[in-house]
Protein: DUF2809 domain-containing protein
Amino acid sequence: MKLTFSLKFLFIFLAILIVEILIGKYLHDAFVRPFGGDVLVIILIYAFFRIFLKTKNKQLALGVLIFSFVIEFLQKANYVTWFGWENNKLMSTVLGTSFSIYDLLAYFVGYLICLLFKD
Structure:
């Protein structure tokens, strides 16, 4: 792993960030927002790290997947209240407040998409 700067992944990150913001602001359905948004957030995190790190694709994708699973299981423990952020809309939205097995599935789909990127 070494430090680098990737314009390609910066553009991917910014494009997905814009899509995520638009989904969060304007889409209130039962599939794209909860499932598609969670798939995209894995790719978003992956792309962010790839802006600055040249590393093995599979290792980084797995690290992002593990991180997302940990956060999801912490949601089951209601960890947002540990920090006193339950009334903070931004932090509650970013960190999530409820556990869902479907979120884990969405994260795994995002992981599989990340594996398609080249080292």
The mean pLDDT is 93.
